Amino acid sequence: MKRIEKVFEAVAELCGNQLKSTGQISGVSTDEIARKLNIHRPNASADLNLLVKENRLEKIEGKPVLYRVVQNYDSANLKTHLSSLKSTVLDEIIGAKESLRTAVLQAKAAMMYPPVGLHTLLLGETGTGKSMFAEAMFNYARETGRLGASAPFVYFNCADYAHNPQLLISQLFGVKRGSYTGADRDRAGLVEKASGGILFLDEVHRLPPEGQEMLFCLIDKGMYRSLGEIDATRRAQVLIICATTENLESALLRTFIRRIPMIIKLPPLRERTLNERWQLIKTFFKQEADYLKTKITVSSNSIKAFLLYDCPNNIGQLKSDIKLSCARAFIQYVSNKETGLAICTEDLPEYVRTGLLRYKESRENLKQLSIGDESVIFESDAEDVSTAKSPDSFNIYEALEEKMRLLKEKGLGENDINLILSLDIETFMRKYMSKLDGENVEQLYKVVDKRIVEITRNFLRIASQKMKKSFADKIFHGLAIHISCTVERMKDGKSIFNPHLDEIKRSYPGEFEVAAILGGMLMENFGIAVPEDEIGFITMFLVMDDYAGKKDNARVGVIVVMHGDAAATTMADVAARLLGEKHAVGYDMPLDQKPETALENLTQLVKETDEGKGVLMLVDMGSLVFFGDMIYERTGIPIKTVEMVSTPMVLEAARKALMMSSLEEVYYSVVNLSPYLGRIYMDGTSYETRIKDDVIVTACITGTGAAVKMKNILEKLIRDSDKKADIIPIDIASIEEYNRKLSKIKREKNIIAVVSAVKPEDETLAYISPTDLIEGKAEKLIARLGAKRAEDKDENIMILNRMREVIRENIEIDADKYIDGFIELYNNLKAHEITLDEDMLVGLVLHLACAIKKIEMGDFLKANKNDTQNAFLMEHYKKYRNILKDAFSHIENAFNIKLPEEEYINFIKIIHLNSRVK
After folding, report:
1. Is 589 helix (H, G, I), strand (E, B) or coil?
2. Which fold has domain 396-544?
3. What does the DSSP 8-state code read for residue 692?
4. Cα–Cα distance for residue pair 336/342, rounded to 1 Å
5. Which of 370, 771, 789, 909 gives a 20 to 30 Å CA spacing to 348?
6. Greatest CA span in the chain, whole angstroms?
């Protein structure tokens, strides 16, 4: 809160104390304010005088000079109401006791001031809630009896009629019969309709001069004339509340300030407390729950993002963004017939998700709001929100059963289900362990039986001695909670199933033997026989400590490499300052440095930078574009390289990496930043000129864990052959998302096959189930590697595919439909020996796209008169007309249009000017 607002609040508080103790308000001196706020007297004096200029305080001359809130604040009528009121509609506004405290106090004073209140001007940025606040003032006046129950509240937005002063005046002040053609009767204006109540003028700064003069007359004298009236005047007893986003110092508002005594400033969302923002979020989600008639569960990360993202359009934008997220999640809710709406970070707009970048610096503030790792449940009829189970109450058995249920609903067989669960369980355990904080024993006692805590402690002491290693606090914490669930489950007679048991026993025989000790301890203390499946789970806790959470908390490394003395490090530093966190690393390569030396240095830097998810290298030019593949051969660390680096690319790469995105996601995000921003290099070949890379896509319905496992299996099969292919693991958040990701990959790559439990919609993609893969039925798949389509060898086809994004961003037509049609057109022309070079091709693509847009808008395409009189051009036109007609048919059918003859002439002209028609 700014100092001047603190000064105003201090004056209001001290005046209130005077009112309570003496029954009147004498005022507050500068010294009293300076002492109360512990500020210098000159600063207090300056702020007090500025508040007087803003008509928020009154100045009482004397020795010492005193100040009090608004003029005649000690009116007997006003004192009675302010001192007697309990909780009112204004008191219930979110922030009434925090950032809106001053505004609420002013609003009460404005409504209660005799005889009919004070005209008020509300100042605030777009979306700060000015309209809502004005309605609250109106309801407060009715609630306290200052306005009758039937008093009107009339809303008028001055911007709607800003360019038609006559219409605006008629709307506000009414029309006299005969004042203009068509005015066949008298018509009352909004001022008359608001008489006895409140007229709210939104965006009052858009009021034209004619309207201002009439409004000022109404404010000053309570009199006005309808449009067309000359001699007669009308009277209205109406309280006016104006709202504006304009600066208080503007010429218009200075005129208003002279006539409107009460100025109330509403702070933007960024100046309001985190608690207020949390209350707003809860209110908006509960409103959506009420509207949809269902509960809404919001993930903890989504809540944190809404609390922390930059929201320039304030409360209005926050409400819209919440509604948008609900709308996105609603599609999944309807299609899957779920019992409630579930919102995760994927449902949030990209700019909202960036709020998670501020989590680290805001962690303590979020803890004060009790915002943890639990999902939050909003229900319309509930007084407050509830939370879903936290990681501390996590039950691995329930999680496995839930996943098994989901897989069965997808129609998977028992073998596939068991395979997916066994592949995924290790990743699942790591994620669980990475969320635990290792809280102290006293906190653990609150959720776990003390005997189990002590048994777990003793067991880990024994395990530590036998395995000659120490265990982190989070292992102790997580294992104690897990054993508590185990004991409870076994007492209830429920079975325990570990789909990963055989792999655990084979991979960790020593740890499995140690884990069996805990089984014996549980038998001795609780009289329960612990099965081998549970011993397997305990074993996982013992081996998790070596690497728990490392990869799950890992981020893609970003290295900027440029020739020169400081270019790369400067770009990395700029990105760090803009994001508030250093992640991208710069490597400056001196112009006289040998490539061999740079390669050695960068190899070491990649090793230091990699956190387990790979590294994105952003380079400028030259031999640097090939370093990524060389370093991969040396280190085995996944590397993607993008050429022609720029500051926006570094910023985007670091931003996505900090959001825990995968290497593929970071890589494509940078590439798609702009169609002109860079070229991508893989396998030492330019993306612009190479044929599409062969890839195999692995996908898992329960996250990327199983997909990564299948990726490892495939990589071994490929290494054993002489083939080569990239393997891309993806998760399946939903069937729609799954197929969308495959379509995106297909545009960039040559997909050899999809290995997944879910068959893709695209029937042109070869499909292999996880069971087929494990049972060794992948020989045919491997044999297909290296197969290339002739189309991919044509550089012009690559150019056309890259033009999709150019068309999509610059011309309002369906880019995919258009480019697909143009590829058919291009192949048709090529078959008739009409050759197009790169420049001509790009020109024709843009020309025809604009022509289609014009036709769709109803514009008529004309040929140049000189063209029709050019004998050579017309000769070629006649010769190739039928060829072009056939070639254009693909695009005409796609857009359901008919290209005129003039367009054929234009097309031939472009080709003719480039002299490439044979």
Report:
1. strand
2. PTS-regulatory domain, PRD (1.10.1790)
3. P
4. 11
5. 370
6. 105
Sequence ranges of the domains in the chain: 1-74, 86-265, 271-388, 396-544, 557-686, 694-790, 794-913
pLDDT of residue 677: 40
Angle between the 30-37 and 3-22 helix axes, to the nearest 10 degrees? 110
CA distance 632 to 612: 13
Q: Parallel, antiparallel, or unpaired for β 341-343 and 296-298?
A: parallel
**Which CATH fold topology does 1-74 show?**
Arc Repressor Mutant, subunit A (1.10.10)
H or E stretch covering 686: strand 685-686
244 has which bridge partners? 123
The set of residues, in sequence order, having a beta carbon less than 8 Å from that of 911 and lying 6+ positions away, is 834, 836, 840, 844, 917
Contact 427, 708 (CB under 8 A): yes
**3-state DSSP call for residue 618?**
strand
Distance CA 155, CA 243 (A): 11
- The continuous run of DSSP H or E covering 83 comes out as helix 76-84
- The tokens for 482 are 């897990």
Q: Each residue of 213-261: pLDDT tens digit?
A: 888 888 888 888 887 777 778 888 899 999 999 887 776 667 777 788 8
Strand partners, 264: 122
Q: Please tell me the CATH code under which domain 557-686 is placed.
A: 3.40.50.510
For residues 778-807, one letter each, b for 16 or more C-beta atoms within 10 angstroms of the residue's C-beta and e for the rest, the string is beebbeebeeeeeeeebebbbbbbbbbbbb
CB 250 within 8 A of CB 113: no
- Which run of H or of E encompasses 532? helix 532-544
- What is the chain's alpha carbon radius of gyration, rounded to the nearest angstrom? 36
Size of the chain in residues: 918
- Write out pLDDT tens, residues 66-102: 998 875 444 444 444 444 445 688 988 999 989 999 9
d(CA 376, CA 480): 25
Opening angle at CA 143, ends 141 and 147, nearest 5: 45
Long-range contacts of 648-651 (CB under 8 A, 24+ apart): 648/673, 648/674, 648/677, 649/618, 649/673, 649/677, 649/678, 650/558, 650/560, 650/571, 650/572, 650/574, 650/575, 650/584, 650/618, 651/574, 651/575, 651/578, 651/579
CA atoms of 548 and 538, how far apart (whole Å)? 14
SS3 letters across 451-509: HHHHHHHHHHHHHHHHHCCCCCHHHHHHHHHHHHHHHHHHHCCCCCCCCCHHHHHHHCH
Q: Give the tens place of pLDDT for each residue, 179-196.
A: 666 667 778 889 889 999
Architecture of domain 271-388: Orthogonal Bundle (1.10)
What gap in Å lies between CA 513 and CA 888, rounded to an integer? 73
CA separation for the pair 457, 479 (Å, rounded): 10
Instruction: Provide CB contacts within 8 A for 391, sequence distance 6+.
Output: 373, 432, 435, 436
Most confident of 12-26, 615-629, 665-679, 800-814: 615-629
Per-residue DSSP letter, 612? S
φ/ψ of residue 242, rounded to 5: -110, 155
| Spatial separation of the C-alpha atoms in residues 110 and 78, rounded to whole Å | 10
CB 585 within 8 A of CB 605: yes
Residue 313 burial by Cβ neighbours in a 10 Å radius (0-12, 13-18, 19+): middle
CA 764 centroid distance within chain: 34
H-type alpha helices, 147-189: 165-173
Q: Which residue has the higher pLDDT, 436 or 33?
A: 33
What are the start-end ranges of the H helices in 659-790? 663-671, 704-719, 735-748, 770-774, 779-783
